């Protein structure tokens, strides 16, 4: 390995860093469909844990599956499964959200685990597919290590009647931001439920801390250039600002939005409401 301070053999590096290098090089050469990894946080500085997993995700065509004892790190993934063992030694798997109610989830994502990962802000977003996509956008602003993304699960929590549950996030004592889809079919459409939810979040966290997208959804911000780069084909086009992806037969799929976002540049987002929102997050130190 070569750095600004000179060359180092792998044996001279820490265990965590040398394992990262070996894993990434191996994945880059083999380009596997899936990467399975046990406890990626082992021997690794907390600030590097999420970046390490994000790098592996870009090299695996289908995805990364990892086991961990860190609830905070697990919550950065799209899907979290909890393994539990009964009195007879039989193991079962179930979704983390199904295993605990919202208050218990907040308790599991403890203050210490939150700060150990290097986060000092929380961004509540639409759902699990938006987590990975927005993480790529945040990377363009240098915010991927300081902002924890938490999915709201669509209509399950995007509801103005869930004020008590959303207010629980204030217990972290950090800046909370909220970004949800507008789901508009045209510019002047009003979604009263979502408008009330955003207004409620602004009352809780600050006027500039909660918005809904001016376009229909996150995928409506992805550019034709980035889509072509990800798909390695010019057959695809960008969605119109209020076009429903379900009506576009060539849509690449929400699960690949993040791969398109990884090809985006900051300049391609400039002038949009998303760029303005990320600028606001970036100014909050």
Explain this structure to me?
The protein has 285 residues and is of the alpha/beta class. 39% of the residues lie in helices and 15% in strands. It has 13 helices and 10 strands. A 4-stranded parallel sheet has the order 8-7-9-10, sandwiched between helices. Strand 5 and strand 6 (91-95) form a beta hairpin. Helix 1 (15-30) packs parallel to helix 2. The longest helix has 16 residues, at 15-30. It is globular, with a radius of gyration of 20 Å. The model has no long low-confidence stretch (mean pLDDT 84).
- Which sequence of strands runs across the widest sheet? 8-7-9-10
- Assign an overall shape: globular
Which regions have little confidence, pLDDT < 50, spanning 5+ residues? none
The class by helix and strand makeup works out as alpha/beta
Average of the residue pLDDT scores: 84
Give me the strand/helix succession. EEHEHEHEEHHHEHEHEHEHHHH
Q: How many distinct beta strands? A: 10
β-strand percent reads: 15-25%
- DSSP helix fraction: 25-40%
Ends distance: 33 Å
Q: Largest sheet, described in full?
A: 4 strands, parallel
Helix run count: 13
Rg (CA only): 20 Å
């Amino acid at each position: 390995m070569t750095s600004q301070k000179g060359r180092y053999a792998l044996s001279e590096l820490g265990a965590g860093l040398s394992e990262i290098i070996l894993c990434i090089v191996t994945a880059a050469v083999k380009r596997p469909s899936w990467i399975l990894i046990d406890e990626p946080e082992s021997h690794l500085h907390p600030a590097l844990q999420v970046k390490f997993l994000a790098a592996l995700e870009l090299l695996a065509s289908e995805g990364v599956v990892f086991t961990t004892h860190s609830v905070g790190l697990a919550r950065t993934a799209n899907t979290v499964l909890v393994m539990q063992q009964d009195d007879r030694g039989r193991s079962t798997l179930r979704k983390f959200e199904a295993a605990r109610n919202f208050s218990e989830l907040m308790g599991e994502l403890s203050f210490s685990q939150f700060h150990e990962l290097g986060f000092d802000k929380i961004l509540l977003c639409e759902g699990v597919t938006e987590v990975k996509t927005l993480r790529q956008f945040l990377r363009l602003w240098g915010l991927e290590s300081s902002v924890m993304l938490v999915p709201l699960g669509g209509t399950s929590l995007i509801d103005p009647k869930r004020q008590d549950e959303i207010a629980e996030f204030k217990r972290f004592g950090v800046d909370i931001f909220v970004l949800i889809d507008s789901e508009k079919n045209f510019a002047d459409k009003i979604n009263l439920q979502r408008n009330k939810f955003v207004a409620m979040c602004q009352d809780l966290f600050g006027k500039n801390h909660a918005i809904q997208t001016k376009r229909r959804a996150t995928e409506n911000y992805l550019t034709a250039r980035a889509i072509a780069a990800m798909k390695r084909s010019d057959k695809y086009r960008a969605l119109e600002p209020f076009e429903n992806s379900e009506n576009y037969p060539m849509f690449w799929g929400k699960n690949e939005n993040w791969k398109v976002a990884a090809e985006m540049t900051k300049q391609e987002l400039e002038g949009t409401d998303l760029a303005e929102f990320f600028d606001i997050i970036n100014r909050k130190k």
